[in-house]
Specification:
Helices cover 36% and strands 25% of the residues. A five-stranded mixed sheet has the order 4-3-2-1-5. It has 124 residues and is an alpha+beta fold. 15% of the residues are buried. Strand 1 and strand 2 form a beta hairpin.
Length: 124
Amino acid sequence: MAMKIRLARGGSKKRPFYRIVASDSRMPRDGRFIEKLGTYNPLLPKDSEERVKMDIDAVKAWLDKGAQPTDRVARMLEAAGVLEKKERSNPKKGEPGTKAKERAEEKAAKAAEATEAAEAPAED
């Protein structure tokens, strides 16, 4: 049985609230789970202590049993100091798109023309 530590969504439309649960990976996201390990409220400010609440001892017990956290839960556990920080690299994420690159080139060309035009009368 493959165990996951993941988020199960609750709350109403456009007002999300999540439970951090240990469940069988074959079960639906909001379906049957084995144990509730905590809560996550994304509507609260990031510096709020109420945003993420976890029973750290229960989480460690499930990790020792072989449960795998999902990416989002793993980030929460890293912030709590339960897991060591994993090196993540997505170099293309910060790269601008093709249209933005074209606009930047046009802007640079206009700036170069403006500096040339400013220098030309000074020489005459």
